[in-house]
Amino acid sequence: MTPDQRNVREYGIENDDSLDTEAIQTALDDCAGEGGEVYIPPGTYRSAPLRVGDDTTLRVANGAELRFVGDFREFPTVESRWEGWDQDGFHPCLYVADAANVTVTGEGVIDGGGSYWWDFVGTPESEFPEGLQERLAEIRSGHRQDEVSTFTVRPPLLQIDGCENVTVSGVTLRNSPFWNTHVVYSEDVTIHDVSIRNPPDAPNGDGIDIDSSRFVRVSDTHIDAGDDAICLKSGKDEEGRAVGRPTENVVVTNCTVEHGHGGVVVGSETAGDVRHVTVTNCTFTDTDRGIRIKSKRGRGGTVEDLRFDTIVMRRVACPFVLNGYYQTDIDSDPKPVDEATPNVRNVNFHHITAEEVESAAFLAGLPEQRFEGISFTDVDIDATRPFDATDLSPAMAAGYEQRHGIFCKSLGSVSFRDVRVTVPDGTPLTVEESSSVLLEGFEAMTEKEDETDAAPVVEAGGVDRLRVAGCTAPSDGGPFVRLRDGDASSVLLGGNYGPMADAVVSAADAER
Question: What PANTHER family does the entry give (predicted)?
Fold first, then answer.
């Protein structure tokens, strides 16, 4: 043990059933005043929530397990941000707040004891343990609730709040009561070589939530989550816009995701903006969605300058989701654009493979705010998995009939360069009410039962400009592009293979 290392066993830990909170917290407080390392040696430790201060390293040794107690009475009330709003909630299990130069490391396990808290979800409050209903009423007094606000029943496992220069490495973080790891109002945060594990059915069991924070790096981390695996947020609605703190300059690299509602997700809390994000060299397996951007009217904020590169997805219901209609109906009239109108622009997908998926992509902006600068380059999607493999809708947007191919609506500009899509039936690409669409080297394969009545490769309606280059006209003489309305003057052809001009038809021509 080094001179600045404090072994928690030297602070009076007893080998009995009593909680070890006082010993561990005293060691942490000593370090917060002087700097150094708190060492948790091999063994099992039970604790109420803990707080880590400045200049402290918390090292959980290989063979050590820090378990947080399942008893709401041990969790005081603190104010932080919860699901996009600044308000009260239960003290996080491990809380790093208003601190600098902190490290949580080791090869041990930090367990949130989530099952105790998960049982409260869906349970009538009249059946809660004595005192919990009154406690919740106190916490909720004067604060907002909406249909997804379940935070007040459960604390996160690790929350990094208002901090600078924090590193989390090596440890296993599992069984979080609520979100597993929440980085909020912080900067210069590194999460490296961490294992995050929540059961697939853990309610709100997000892996890592990066919330109004900047200069965050997530690398070489494995996540098995009960909700979104890695999620980027920046506040909700009017309050989030007033706070105005973006999530920006984020890198996610060399990560593996197993289960979860999404591999990497942005939103739905986008009010303070999310920008300058790079995700590279990752795999997503058995997640509901792959790369998912979600917002809706009322949120506001801009999501921009995102790049997703070198990613492999497998058994994902829908690998690409850009959804401006989260939990609302896509068939709606335009509304006035104001500060509450969300926007998405400059999102690039490059060198990505998606296998055994159900729906290739759902990309839908708003009629009053078309999403701009969406590009796909060197992307291969095999969307031949049956719809009933998961019974999931592609994007949690009402008024949309699920299909295997790519669906685009209300986009300012979208491009598909060297993109390959395989579907069992139907149209591989549908574009509606969009400004500019570029297809360059776009390939599609469809298992057609009736070659004389083949679906088109592309169906377009309300598209101002459609450019087709480097594509091959169907060898059977079927349509490559079918226009639902208007004539072919909106289509620019160049450098294609085969009689492409003959393969561009209107819906009226197709019916004759």
Answer: PECTIN LYASE-RELATED (PTHR31339), PLASMIN AND FIBRONECTIN-BINDING PROTEIN A (PTHR31339:SF9)
Is the predicted pLDDT of residue 449 greater than 90, yes or no? Answer: no
Are the C-beta atoms of 28 and 5 separated by less than 8 Å? no
Q: Does the predicted TM-score (pTM) go above 0.85?
A: yes
Q: CA–CA separation, 240 vs 245, rounded Å?
A: 8
Residues forming a β-bridge with 87:
80
According to DSSP, the residues that pair with 285 across neighbouring strands are: 258, 314
Burial class (CB in 10 A: 0-12, 13-18, 19+), 334: exposed
Give the CA count within 13 Å in the CB-facing half-sphere of 379.
Answer: 25
Q: DSSP code of 455?
A: P
Residue whose C-alpha is closest to residue 283's, from 316, 251, 250, 261: 316
What is the reported pLDDT for 512?
A: 46
> With the C-alpha atoms ordered 237, 223, 347, 216, is the resulting torsion angle positive or negative?
positive
- At residue 172, what is the residue type? T
Percent of the chain with pLDDT over 90: 84
- The helix or strand, by DSSP H or E, that contains position 140, with its residue range, turns out to be helix 132-140
When pLDDT is cut at 50, 70 and 90, the band that residue 141 belongs to is confident
Do the strands 77-82 and 85-90 form a parallel or antiparallel pair, or are they unpaired? antiparallel
Alpha-carbon distances, residue 226 vs 69, 207, 248, 294 (angstroms): 21, 8, 25, 18
Burial of residue 160 (CB within 10 Å: 0-12, 13-18, 19+) is buried
Q: Write the DSSP symbol of residue 162.
A: S
Q: Count CB neighbours of 188 within 10 A.
A: 17
Neighbours of 512 (CB within 10 A): 6
Instruction: Of 363, 54, 405, 86, give the one whose Cα is nearest residue 242.
Output: 86
- Give the C-alpha distances (Å, rounded to integers) separating 373 from 96, 168, 331, 359: 38, 35, 23, 22
Closest CA to 59 of 21, 10, 5: 5
Q: What φ, ψ does residue 67 adopt, rounded to 5°?
A: -110, 130
The rounded distance, in Å, linking the Cα atoms of 200 and 228 is: 10
Amino acid at residue number 65: E
Tokens of 331: 């068939």
